[in-house]
């Protein structure tokens, strides 16, 4: 596991965007796994800038998002489909039909989850997966206790996660109780993975992810089993790490 500690969130976002852009340039038909939450917003802004100013071409790129709230339609402003359209897809030349976010309104959710897995397989698997991390160490919506071999499925959200995400809703009652999420087993099949974390509120989660034992109680610790993970943090989120980590990755050129 490669850990890179940057001074600021802006530097983190720039590095993550450069790494994603490398994959897109090396493999124009690449498959990107994307994340929501406030953490990747700066990375998406930088990718939009690269598209507008440097011509970064998304015309053949295919994307799969990690997760979606059950019960929120794509036009709800807190749905992850809305977030992705608003923060990235509407501002680059990606084909809408090449973007995939689980459907929180699917009639048969277990069947939809199976189809989602099949679509990822048919697309050739994920070349690069971008991740944030929850305060409890979750990735996507794989809450503590999630099987490290889990696949895309419906999941009950932890109260801590609902509270963390309640800042985006009018009241706690409006925060969905369930989500559809890629599993840990799905995520760690990606060729490469970038996990981003900033702010002190993520320091405990980053420590359990990077330096803790591999345990379902800290789902992100499963990333230690993956051969090509880069964890990019700021100083605050790295505050509880014991190791000494560089401020640049060992390699910048990505792609299969
Ligand atoms: C949600 C998402 C995760 C995300 C986490 C952290 O729970 N399902 O994918 O990593 O929030 O969000 P933020 O980046 O806003 O701290």
What CATH calls the topology is Rossmann fold
Principal-axis shape equals globular
Helix content: 25-40%
Distance between the termini: 18 Å
Quaternary organization: single chain
How many domains make up the coordinates? 1
CATH domain class name: Alpha Beta
User: How much strand?
Assistant: 15-25%
| Cα gyration radius (Å) | 17 Å
Q: Can you summarize the main beta sheet?
A: 7 strands, parallel
The CATH architecture can be given as: 3-Layer(aba) Sandwich
Q: Helix segment count?
A: 7
Mean pLDDT: 96
Which small-molecule ligands are present, each listed once?
2-amino-2-deoxy-6-O-phosphono-alpha-D-glucopyranose
Ordered list of secondary-structure elements with their pairings:
Blueprint: E1 2-6, H1 9-26, E2 31-34, H2 41-54, E3 62-65, E4 67-69, H3 80-87, E5 99-100, H4 109-122, E6 128-131, E7 153-156, H5 159-165, E8 178-181, H6 184-187, E9 192-197, H7 203-211, E10 229-234
Helix pairs in contact: 1-2
The chain binds 2-amino-2-deoxy-6-O-phosphono-alpha-D-glucopyranose.
């Amino acid at each position: 596991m490669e850990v890179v500690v940057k001074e600021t969130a802006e530097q983190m976002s720039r590095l993550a965007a450069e790494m994603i852009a490398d994959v897109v340039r090396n493999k124009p038909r690449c498959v990107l796994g994307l994340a929501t939450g406030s953490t990747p917003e700066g990375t998406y802004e930088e990718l939009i800038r690269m598209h507008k100013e440097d011509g970064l071409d998304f015309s053949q790129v295919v994307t799969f998002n990690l997760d979606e709230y059950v019960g929120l339609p794509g036009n709800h402003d807190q749905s992850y489909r809305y977030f992705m359209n608003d923060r990235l897809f509407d501002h680059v030349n990606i084909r809408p039909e090449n973007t995939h976010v689980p459907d929180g309104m699917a009639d048969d959710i277990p069947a939809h989850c199976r189809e989602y897995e099949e679509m990822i397989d048919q697309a050739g698997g994920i070349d690069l997966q971008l991740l944030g991390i929850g305060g409890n160490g979750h990735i996507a919506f794989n809450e503590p206790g999630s099987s490290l071999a889990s696949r895309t499925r419906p999941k009950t959200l932890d109260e801590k996660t609902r509270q963390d995400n309640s800042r985006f809703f009018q009241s706690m009652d409006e925060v969905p109780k369930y989500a559809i999420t890629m599993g840990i087993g799905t995520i760690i099949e990606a060729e490469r993975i970038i996990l981003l974390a900033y702010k002190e509120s993520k320091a405990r989660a980053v420590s359990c992810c990077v330096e803790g034992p591999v345990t379902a109680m800290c789902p992100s610790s499963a990333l230690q089993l993956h051969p090509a993970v880069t964890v990019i943090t700021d100083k605050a989120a790295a505050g509880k790490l014991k190791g000494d980590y560089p401020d640049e990755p060992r390699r910048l050129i990505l792609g299969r």
